[in-house]
Amino acid sequence: MIDLYYWPTPNGHKITIFLEETGLVYRIMPVDIAKGDQFKPDFLAISPNNRMPAIVDHAPADGGAEIALFESGAILLYLAEKTGRLLPDDMRGRLRVLQWLFWQVGGLGPMAGQNHHFGKYAPARIPYAIDRYNKETARLYGVLDRELAKGPFIAGEYSIADIACYPWIVPHHDQGQDLDDFPRVKRWFESIRSRPAVTRAYAAGAPYERRRPDFDALEREILFGQGAARPAEK
């Protein structure tokens, strides 16, 4: 059994997609990031960066004590190695997947995240920031589009590289991107969206989806006002 500390964000969806693709038994432990669940001591013991997702694997492959792990890229790599799935065994194939996994966690995710913030959540519209992150997101879509000229998936066969990137493309409209401008990304996106495991993963997150379009003042402070001290400690 794997406990998945989760909220339905792109990084959260990465892990449910992997778990559904491989059939690993898991249970969702909701972490409502707008209410501050990420600052609870029990969660911080698992995820010291106060971010979800995180997992606790109660049956690790080495047969030892349970393993707690945070950071979505590290979780995907761990689960791929645990199951022997969605990551090639050969050195060259493995490196090809890992470079694109790291591309996502170091580039696509952070830049699209800033795009979301300044385009949708910032209290004041800052044209320079909106334009800056729209253009950088477009640049990254272009990088992905060119890579997908080589085959149907990012790194050869369907892998954790695709699982990592897909949820960050789902909100392309909010990022100011038109998939018609990136035909290979569009083809890839539609092929992954149609996978039964992806459908199940998003259905698993549906009960936790936010019903209100915006955040109140306290929620904004919790989500966007974090410094070295937790909001409640200021």
TrEMBL record:
Database matches in InterPro entries: Glutathione-S-Trfase_C-like, Glutathione-S-Trfase_C_sf, Glutathione_S-Trfase, Glutathione_S-Trfase_N, GST_C, Thioredoxin-like_sf
Domain GST N-terminal: start-end pairs: 1-87
UniProt domain GST C-terminal: residue ranges: 90-215
Matching Pfam families: GST_C (PF00043), GST_N (PF02798)
Superkingdom of origin: Bacteria
Matches recorded under SUPFAM superfamilies: GST C-terminal domain-like (SSF47616), Thioredoxin-like (SSF52833)
PANTHER family documented for this protein: DISULFIDE-BOND OXIDOREDUCTASE YFCG (PTHR44051:SF19), GLUTATHIONE S-TRANSFERASE-RELATED (PTHR44051)
Protein family: Belongs to the GST superfamily.
Protein name (record): Thiol:disulfide oxidoreductase
Organism of origin: Methylocystis echinoides
